[in-house]
UniProtKB/TrEMBL annotation:
GO biological process: chloroplast-nucleus signaling pathway; mitochondria-nucleus signaling pathway
Keyword tags: Repeat
Annotated source species: Gossypium aridum
Homology family: Belongs to the PPR family. P subfamily.
Keyword Disulfide bond found: no
Protein name: Pentatricopeptide repeat-containing protein
Matches recorded under InterPro entries: PPR_rpt, TPR-like_helical_dom_sf
Domain of life from the UniProt record: Eukaryota
Length: 511
């Protein structure tokens, strides 16, 4: 590996935001092109519908032709804006019942994901049975993985496997690709131990292939266990490929065993399996874990010498190393280098900085970074929003919080549920009842249910202000979700949480 003299470290205490001297108009420009009008219109119809009949009438009144492409985009919008799953389900059913119309595999899988996220498993099987009747080719191993992943999150391994066997009556070929979908689900949603046990109990019903072993290799956390399974793979006559070796490199890098990782890379070259961008990204992440961020940065240059060019994930891994070391000047330098090379920083890139600013309690740099993010056209994700809204609450910055909320409502990013709880806490603490009521209603109009805790806080302020009609209006609006509001006592049974300190090398790679 190439080793260079480390660049001078930039102290956090002397760090000045590179955005501080930009003209004000830089931050005021609208970064996003206008949204597709038809998609926006249909999405608003869905989120404002109160019944199947109302939805049907409203969609017909728009005069918009509901093509496959438009439906794909609308359902995708529902997914990423955390829209109401039952409203989306009504839309999916309505469009699917038209004579001669067939949903795309994308629409099907996305709809199943939305239903699964809200644990509407009865609706999932209803959709699958209907699709089986109309176009069974749409039900693929990918579909299986979408469904099983949501089930595995809340059910036992036994129940997950039982649901796996249900697909035998739904898919055209219940073969090794389906078994691989189950194993991948267990690796991602349960544990490697669960996946290994299921593999050994069912491997005689299927013929394991290279993909089977690669899925299982990618789930190991212990290098000893990975090595043992790697040997088993070769004993069964399955020849490792680049993916197989990448899994081994990744395990070594995460375990800070860099010498072993380098030896695997050399073995790959000896077998004429050339390391790819994923191999190098693992190396970059591993070097960061052993405290060598400058050497990791040099890997970005070394990659090019071997004909492999860094992607966004590779740069994110290198940037992460510098943010952990609090060398923000070097981190920003890499992000600027990405821009110059035509690689647009994504939400993960920005979150690496947001995380540092959040723990440093640096409101100014967080706000400047958010403005740069919006100007560049990169929409924040839920994690970005949570870093920001919690910092705004700490500093009691109502205007900034409302600006973030306004952008979320207009551009459809982030989790309304998570952000709104913190937002309503801030607004209620500051006595901003008018603003709280407005945001509350906007959330409902978007098809998202505010938490009972938030409702109770706003209700208390309204009672003090003698706004009884407003309270009645909110209760009526909430009725669309088909649940009653407990006005006193009790506690919130379920509340989503987000670990703001969960940025790992794996997160960087997958984003």
């Amino acid at each position: 590996m190439i080793i260079r003299v480390p660049l001078p470290q930039l102290s956090v205490s002397r760090y000045v935001s590179p955005f501080s001297f930009l003209p004000f108009k830089f931050f005021c420009s609208d970064p996003n092109p206008p949204l597709n009008n038809d998609v926006d219109t249909v999405y608003r119809v869905i989120t404002s519908s109160t019944s199947s009949k109302h939805l049907t009438q409203s969609l017909k009144s728009t005069g918009i032709f509901l093509s496959n492409d438009l439906i794909d985009k609308v359902i995708k919008r529902v997914r990423f804006s955390h829209g109401n799953p039952l409203q989306a389900f009504e839309f999916f059913n309505y469009t699917g019942k038209r004579t001669g119309f067939y949903h795309t595999a994308f629409s099907l899988d996305t709809m199943l994901y939305v239903l699964g996220r809200s644990r509407r498993f009865d609706k999932i099987w209803e959709v699958l049975i209907d699709i089986k009747r109309k176009d069974p080719s749409l039900i693929t191993p990918r579909t299986m993985q979408v469904v099983l992943a949501r089930i595995a999150k809340v059910c036992s391994v036994r129940e997950t496997v039982e649901n796996f066997w249900k697909f035998k009556k739904l898919v055209s070929e219940f073969d090794i690709s389906c078994f691989n979908a189950l194993l991948r689900t267990l690796c991602q949603e349960r544990s490697m131990k669960d996946a290994r046990n299921v593999y050994h109990s069912l491997k005689h019903d299927f013929r394991p292939n290279l993909q089977t072993f690669n899925i299982l290799l990618s789930g190991w956390k212990s290098s000893e266990e990975a090595e043992g399974f790697f040997e088993e793979m070769k004993e069964l006559g399955v020849k490792p490929d680049v993916v197989s070796y990448n899994c081994l490199v990744d395990v070594y890098c995460k375990g800070r065993e860099m010498d072993k990782a380098y030896r695997v890379v050399e073995k790959m070259r000896d077998e004429e399996l050339w390391p790819d961008v994923i191999t190098y990204t693992s190396i970059i992440g591993g070097l960061g874990l052993v405290g060598q961020p400058d050497k990791a940065r040099d890997v970005l240059k070394e990659m090019k010498e071997h004909g492999c060019y860094p992607d966004v994930a590779a740069y994110n891994a290198a940037i992460r190393n510098y943010t952990i070391a609090k060398r923000l000047g070097d981190a920003y330098s890499l992000m600027d280098e990405m821009d110059r090379k035509g690689l647009n920083p994504n939400a993960t890139t920005y979150n690496l900085f947001f995380r540092v600013f959040y723990w440093l309690n640096d409101l100014s740099c967080s706000w400047s970074l958010y403005q740069r993010m919006m100007y560049s056209g990169c929409l924040p994700n839920t994690q970005s929003c949570m870093f920001l809204i919690r910092l705004f609450r700490k500093h009691e910055q109502v205007e900034m919080a409302l600006r973030l909320w306004k952008d979320m409502v207009e551009k459809g990013f982030g989790s309304y549920t998570l952000v709104s709880d913190v937002l309503f806490d801030l607004l209620c603490d500051m006595g901003k009842l008018v603003e709280a009521e407005k945001c509350f209603l906007e959330m409902i109009e978007k098809g998202h249910k505010p938490s009972n805790v938030s409702f109770k806080r706003i209700k208390v302020l309204m009672e003090l202000a003698n706004k009884h009609e407003a309270i009645k209006n909110l209760i009526e609006k909430m009725s669309v979700f088909g649940c009653s509001i407990q006005l006193s006592g009790g506690s919130q049974n379920h509340k989503e949480t987000l670990d703001l300190d969960s940025l790992t090398v794996n997160h960087v790679r997958t984003n």
